[in-house]
Amino acid sequence: MTHGLPIRRDARTGHLNLALDLAAAGLPVLPLRAGKGPFGNCPACEKNACGGRPNMKTPGPCACPLPCHAWAAATTDPDVLSSAAWAASWRRAGGVAYHPGGAGVTVVDLDDADAVTWARETLPPTRTVATTRGEHWIYSGTIRSVNGVRESVDIKSLMSYARWRGPGTGDMTDLPDVVRALAVKEPAMAKPARRSIVVPAPGGGGECRHRTPAYLERGIAMAEQRITEAASAVHATVYRTFLAVLSNHGRCGCLTDAHIARLFTAAQAKGESPRHCTDAWSNAQTALGM
Q1: What are the beta bridge partners of residue 31?
Q2: What is the largest CA-CA distance in the chain?
């Protein structure tokens, strides 16, 4: 077992047998519907009589044996998994899910080829698992779960579940700042009138880790594209993009006024003000301890 995720499984078949294998290796698991959703509340918890929240993200005080609260039902207890109370769920299950946060990991869920390309150009390598349409990139460490951090990219860790699709390949690495930054949502801000570009002083002073100058250029170009293609939540997109750029390039002194101006220009083309751009940049630096 590595960081809570098994690295191999035996040849036994069936969702329950697989779940027992994973649980024995320390992975909290639960049955998953054929449509990839978790099973709903059990009769004893119907309409959240037990105190659970309607979205099932917080378990109530019940002690029922059924998988009634999505991620919170995930367990490593073989007696619970094999119990008669869970039998019907396993008979109807379409797969096995697990709680990444409970296993001490974070899953970056890349749902299409474009998202995978972005990850390969932006994120540090780690254990990778092929999915139906994309890949799961799994890092050691936990953060809050957030859907839609960018197009076709979700973060699944605490209070979430992910479908088990195999052990994957590659060595698992520690959760990087660039992924932590994606999970940070910017507080809503009033949108002031658009004005001319104001560029803050770039950070820097650390050791440069870029492989080539083209790495920085590609990162800035992708950040511009991400802002330009934002169809909604422009404030949050700008902030998260600034976080990602600073996480990757903000500590080594490679960012110049010209690079930052390009990002601000892209943001202002989407209707953001210079004040908002400056505040978002400063908030991103603060969030990263810069």
Answers
A1: 96
A2: 67
Give the span between the Cα atoms of 80 and 88, in whole angstroms.
13
Length of the chain in terms of residues written: 290
State the burial class of residue 279 (Cβ atoms within 10 Å of its Cβ: 0-12, 13-18, 19+): middle
User: Which residue shows structure tokens 């440069």?
Assistant: 208
Return the percent helix, strand and coil in the chain, to nearest 5. Answer: 40, 15, 45
Distance of CA 179 to CAs 10, 84, 125, 144, 150, Å? 32, 40, 12, 11, 11
Each residue of 149-201: pLDDT tens digit?
888 999 999 888 899 999 999 999 999 989 988 887 544 443 444 444 555 55
Question: How would you classify the pairing of strands 95-98 and 29-32?
Answer: antiparallel
